[in-house]
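Extended Data, record Flp family type IVb pilin
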Amino acid sequence: MSNLLKRLINEESGQGMVEYALIIALIAIVVMAALGPLGTTIKEKFEDVTSELS
């Protein structure tokens, strides 16, 4: 039983993939947070253009 536990603790085969997944998730969160205000600004600009064309 202790050998199994030691083996599981020292196992690192999936560690790299998990790290990349966490980095990608963090980047996705940052992008989503940035797109909120940016989307509002773009919407306001389109509304300004629409009102100028009317």
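Summary. The mean pLDDT is 87.
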